[in-house]
Every structure is written in C-alpha cells, then in structure tokens.
Design goal:
Elements (H helix, E strand, L loop, with lengths): L3 E4 L6 H11 L3 E3 L3 E2 L14 E2 L2 H9 L3 E7 L3 E6 H9 L3 E5 L2 H10 L4 E6 L3 H11 L4 H16 L6 E4 L3 H14 L2
Parallel strand pairs: 1-7, 1-8, 2-7, 3-4, 8-9
Antiparallel strand pairs: 3-6, 5-6
Helix pairs in contact: 1-7
The chain binds guanosine-5'-monophosphate.
C-alpha cells in the first residue's frame, strides 16, 4: 500500500479529519512531524509534533533523516522523520503524511507511489472565517497564512484527488473510501 499525503491550506481542518481517520480505521498511522515552532496550548511533544531547536532540526536534515522538509509560512521549519515512516510502511500501516505544498512536491519526487490528496475548503471566505474562529494566530500571522493559502489552492490540480471539507464526516468517508480503493 502506498503512503497517503494530505495537504491543504491553513485551518481547512486537516487535523480534525486526520483524527477522524485514525478513530475510524485502526490501520491508519499518522507521521509525527518535527518542527521548530513553539507548542500551542495543549500540544504535546512526541504526540502533536516533535518540538525541536533549529540546530537539532538542521542536524536531522544534514544526516539524511528527513523524508521531506520545508519552511512553512516563511517562518518555521517542519519535516517528516524518515525512520518512523519506513517502519510503519513495513508494518503495512496506512501511512499519512500531513505536509505543506513544498513537502508534497518533495514527496512526489522521492516517493512517487504516494497517493496525494488535497483537502480544500468550500470557498476562500470559509477559510478566512475558520482561521478567525480558531483564534490561535494574531492578525499578521493570519494574513501570512492566508497568502500561503492562495498559493496552495492554486496548486490543487497537482494532486491525485481533491476532497472538499464541506462536512467533516462526509470528507472523512471520502478519504477512507479512496484509501480502500488504492492498493
Ligand atoms: P501548524 O503550525 O498550523 O501546526 O502547521 C502549519 C503547516 O505546516 C500546516 O499547513 C502543515 O501542513 C505543515 N506541516 C506540518 N508538518 C509538516 C511536515 O512534516 N512537513 C511539511 N513540509 N509541512 C508540514
């Protein structure tokens, strides 16, 4: 079974959908990324992310331990530690990589078999509302994320499937059904 990439703009609901996928199918395994950003309230090291220093992150890259990595929203680095993904693939898990557009493009080059899903909002305005409602970023960070989102939305056609998150349960069903069809 190939790995599955899930990409989509800020606040589209990737985290919620991935949690639903895990709850619905015990074979789904989410790669825990490393990041140089600081934890948000309630985030746990080793569960939501591996929160690492910029130096530790660069060492992982230099040692070839990242499957892909990118600077996201022009600020912090995020990457997928390679060893855990290889292990989960060998165990026959349904591996999910939640990455940004640059990461998805790297995976397309280094793991061409991976099936790439783009999670899209019903509209751009919907994204603006969701980001505001989430309330985890201030106005300047929101503005930066929405600029990135425009670029990401314009690249949706590069993906094997576009899933619209108009309803969490429906979008989750659609992704589970894609995962069942792709062998
Ligand atoms: P946040 O800071 O909101 O948790 O994540 C910001 C962005 O980083 C998200 O759009 C997410 O897709 C991206 N991201 C998270 N983990 C990775 C990763 O391992 N690699 C790449 N390239 N992007 C990631």
């Amino acid at each position: 079974m190939p790995a599955f990439v899930i990409c989509g703009p800020t606040a589209v609901g990737k985290g919620t959908i991935v949690r639903q996928l895990i709850a619905r199918d015990p074979k789904v395994w989410l790669s825990v990324s490393a990041t140089t950003r600081t934890p948000r309230e309630g985030e746990r090291d080793g569960v939501d992310y591996y929160f690492v220093t910029p130096e530790a992150f660069d060492d992982m890259v230099d040692e070839g331990n990242m499957l892909e990595w990118a600077t996201v929203h022009g600020v912090h680095k995020y990457g997928t530690p390679r060893a855990a993904v290889d292990r989960a693939m060998a165990e026959g898990k349904k591996v999910i990589l939640e990455v940004d557009l640059a990461g998805a493009r790297q995976v397309r080059a280094s793991m061409p078999d991976a099936y790439q899903i783009f999670l899209s909002p019903p509209s751009f305005d919907d994204l603006v509302d969701r980001l505001e409602m989430r309330g985890t970023e201030g106005p300047s960070e929101r503005k930066r994320r929405l600029e990135t989102a425009r670029v990401e939305l314009a690249a949706a056609d590069e993906f094997d499937s576009i899933v619209i998150n108009d309803d969490v349960a429906r979008a989750t069903d659609e992704i589970l059904s894609i995962m069942t069809q792709i062998k």
